[in-house]
Design a protein that fits this description.
single chain; mainly alpha; Glutathione S-transferase Yfyf (Class Pi), Chain A, domain 2
């Protein structure tokens, strides 16, 4: 175990890596969400009589295939990404917990540990935003799965992956909350 300052600095670097992983995962989710929204709008416009079903049937079929492909791509990569994200969160919270053990109240340490708390609160907010995006995507695609047999083929893996994502994010939230409590007890 290094010095308190070294542990805090290591945790800051780890959080930068975590942010990169978060951004790539969110891009994957946003891409799928945008495709889902496009398909949902097409279905809605046809049901509302705003479009001719025959004219836009081909466009809908293309969008269904693209959405199915996007969901398959999502299924292939999300498990690896969320496991990486969870691993990074666990490592980060461990670094902060180790820093708490090394905390001695020396000059500058209180400011550093309070900054660490602030970083963890930010991370908590990011994880909650992440969960919200996943829940929104899940609700939207639950509706879309009922419209297409092609989409029903990817549904099982998709649902399994979303359950995994939600579970891992819940664990990550608890890790952050536990570490924040540990920091608050130092004051």
């Amino acid at each position: 175990m290094g010095s308190f300052v070294d542990q805090i600095n290591e945790a800051k670097r780890a959080q930068l890596q975590l942010n990169k992983l978060y951004k790539s995962t969110i891009n994957l989710i946003d891409s799928l969400k945008n495709r889902s929204r496009k398909y949902m709008n097409q279905v809605s416009n046809i049901e509302d009589g705003l479009l001719e079903p025959d004219e836009d049937f081909k466009a809908m079929e293309q969008n269904i295939k693209a959405l199915g492909s996007d969901i398959s791509e999502f299924n292939e990569s999300i498990e690896k990404q969320i496991n990486g994200f969870s691993k990074e969160i666990k490592a980060l919270t461990k670094m902060y917990k180790d820093a708490c053990l090394s905390y001695s109240g020396e000059k500058g340490e209180l400011s550093a540990i309070l900054e660490a708390r602030k970083r963890l609160l930010y991370l908590d907010a990011v994880i909650r935003k992440f969960r919200h995006k996943i829940n929104s995507l899940q609700q939207m695609n639950n509706i879309l799965f009922s419209f297409s047999e092609e989409l029903k083929r990817v549904k099982k893996d998709y649902k399994r992956n979303l359950i995994l994502v939600n579970s891992e994010l819940a664990i990550s939230l608890e890790d952050c909350a536990e570490t924040i409590r540990k920091i608050e007890l130092l004051n």
